[in-house]
């Protein structure tokens, strides 16, 4: 690993999200596992990523895909063992790839011994005080204590049968921990230390804005309980984004900074954008925070410009770097979302885990390719969700019997949930389960059209999405530096259809958002990367619609000399 930026490696890193259950199955049980990931480390190395983020692999009943953790210091046998985890970390490090793991501090599984003990202990006991238990309202406690709702639908309070309830902001199998309890704080410091000592390089913090609740009596209702994020960006919501949570992360940062190199952390706060969210990115706290704005945006030049500007400003003001996310395991895949017809409410479509409102596949693919060059051309940290490098579309065909996400049941079958982006990856178009599993029975069925997207096919095609990602990541490593800032190219040049920016190496990125206008590049532009495989160079310096290019002014040879 490079020594020169050992603490700051993440500031321009490309991080690849692995959803272990769906990545690669080596033991043939239909679910991915650690050995499967180890077998693909060379693939990830060839892709060029700087780090892996593994979503939860801890022992879990999988009521929420592993975000219901029953033991924070173990490995679920379906994924492997602690020894295999060590092998995975060692194998990644040998290839210069860092490893980030997921920490889920807002809630545990209801099968965690902390919770089973709490349930069997008396109200007011120290066991119960690890969680948030409360008596119900009404004469006999027959109503929930407040109007708070679960993110997955229904009340956030589950009755225990004796007039008491426990709080769960997600599924009822995910009871919320009580972060007012010093024991809970201590336990998580121990958990972080446990994994730091096993060589992980950083952490992704689940629901980082949720931990601390206002538990002052009497408990307060939320003005609009259907919103699952803070209603006013001022810390006044009793559940989300409370000021008190920052004290937790300051303590964590003290611990993470004791290591050399220091450990990375990124917060996950699924909230509408407010500058307040960047408090998590302060350098004495987590240090960085995901920005999900592009995941909820329509393919629109002005919206993108606004987002890129405000995210870059806020991240820089916090001493951090922007963290770009185009896809993850919670939302319909980029390669479908980006093709939504004009006028679709993207945020609603994303959170209701869609049906097909008339996506034009060719257009969606063009835009997804341009979007990849856009994100990888921006300074900051870029997160890629497994399969997005293949341009995999969302699987909108899953049938009710296939669905496993708790959202499906908890929403009373109104929302299908997030399984469509979690379908196991296609590695080989000619093998059973497309090379994912010898079992022939992947835990979610793969559609027949997955064959076209298989790695084996894309490796052979110079213009494939996979090869575009590889080329862009390699070029980014060379031309985008930690601490770079995007300098907008004068609007006049690209007028109303495009966005263009320059970074310190002189690399310029141009994205043409229009679906019918070409944009002219400067006369002396040398194009280095082009998102359209069928167009080998930009004839007459014209960048066609829905296309992105990376170029330099002058010749590439002169640049290479300067940068040596
Ligand atoms: O997600 C947090 C979260 O708020 C999401 O549930 C989001 O609201 C939803 O997916 C949008 O459609 C994290 C994890 O990424 C997610 O997989 C878990 O289910 C959730 O926390 C609970 O741990």
UniProtKB/TrEMBL annotation:
GO terms for molecular function: alpha-amylase activity. One of its GO terms (biological process) is oligosaccharide catabolic process. It comes from the Bacteria. It holds the Pfam family Alpha-amylase. Residues 17-422 form the Glycosyl hydrolase family 13 catalytic domain. CDD domains: AmyAc_OligoGlu_TS. The keyword Transferase does not apply. Keywords: Glycoprotein. Belongs to the glycosyl hydrolase 13 family. This is Alpha amylase. The lineage of its organism: Bacteria, Bacillati, Actinomycetota, Actinomycetes, Bifidobacteriales.
């Amino acid at each position: 690993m490079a020594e020169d930026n050992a603490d700051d490696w993440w500031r321009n890193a490309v991080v690849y999200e692995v959803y272990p259950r769906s990545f690669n199955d080596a033991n043939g049980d239909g679910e991915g596992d650690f050995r499967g990931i180890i077998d693909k480390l060379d693939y990830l190395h060839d892709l060029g990523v700087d780090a892996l983020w593994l979503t939860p692999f801890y022992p879990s009943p999988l009521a929420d895909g592993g975000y219901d953790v029953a033991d924070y210091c173990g490995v679920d046998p379906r994924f492997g063992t602690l020894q295999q985890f060590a092998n995975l970390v060692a194998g990644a490090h040998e290839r210069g790839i860092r490893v980030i793991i997921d920490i889920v501090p807002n809630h545990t599984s209801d099968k965690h011994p902390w919770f089973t003990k709490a349930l069997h202990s008396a109200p007011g006991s120290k066991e119960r005080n690890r969680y948030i238990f409360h008596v119900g309202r009404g004469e006999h406690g027959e109503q929930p204590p407040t109007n708070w709702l679960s993110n997955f639908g229904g009340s956030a309070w589950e009755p225990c049968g004796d007039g008491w309830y426990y709080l769960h902001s997600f599924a009822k199998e995910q009871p919320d921990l009580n972060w007012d309890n010093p024991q809970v704080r201590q336990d998580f410091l121990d958990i972080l230390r446990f994994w730091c000592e096993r060589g992980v390089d950083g952490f992704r913090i689940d629901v980082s804005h949720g931990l601390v609740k206002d538990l002052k009596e009497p408990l307060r209702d939320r003005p609009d309980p259907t919103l699952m994020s803070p209603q006013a960006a001022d810390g006044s919501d009793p559940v989300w984004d409370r000021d008190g949570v920052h004290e937790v992360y300051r303590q964590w940062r003290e611990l993470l900074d004791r290591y050399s190199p220091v450990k990375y952390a990124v917060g996950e706060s699924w909230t509408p954008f407010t500058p307040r969210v960047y408090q998590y990115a302060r350098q004495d706290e987590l240090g960085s925070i995901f920005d999900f704005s592009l995941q909820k945006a329509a393919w629109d030049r002005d919206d993108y410009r606004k987002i890129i500007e405000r995210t870059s400003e806020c991240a820089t003001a916090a001493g951090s770097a922007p963290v770009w996310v185009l896809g993850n395991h919670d939302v319909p895949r980029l390669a479908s979302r980006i093709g939504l017809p004009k006028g679709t409410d993207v945020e609603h479509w994303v959170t209701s885990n869609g049906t097909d409102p008339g996506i034009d596949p060719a257009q969606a693919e063009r835009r997804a390719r341009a979007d990849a060059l856009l994100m990888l051309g921006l300074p900051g940290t870029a997160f890629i969700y497994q399969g997005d490098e293949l341009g995999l579309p969302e699987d909108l065909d899953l049938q009710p019997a296939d669905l496993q996400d708790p959202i499906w049941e908890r929403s009373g079958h109104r929302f299908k949930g997030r399984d469509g982006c979690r379908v196991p990856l296609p590695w080989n178009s000619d093998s059973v389960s497309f090379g994912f599993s010898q079992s022939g029975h992947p835990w979610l069925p793969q559609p027949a059209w997955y064959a076209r997207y298989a790695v084996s096919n894309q490796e052979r095609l110079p213009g494939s999405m996979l090869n575009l990602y590889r080329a862009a990541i390699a070029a980014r490593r060379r031309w985008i530096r930690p601490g770079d800032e995007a300098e907008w190219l004068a609007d006049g040049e690209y007028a109303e259809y495009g966005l263009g920016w320059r970074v310190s190496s002189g690399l310029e990125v141009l994205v043409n958002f229009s679906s019918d206008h070409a944009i002219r590049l400067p006369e002396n532009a040398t194009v280095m990367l082009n998102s359209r495989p069928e167009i080998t160079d930009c004839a007459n310096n014209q960048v066609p619609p829905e296309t992105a290019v990376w170029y330099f002014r002058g010749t590439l040879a002169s640049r290479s000399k300067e940068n040596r």
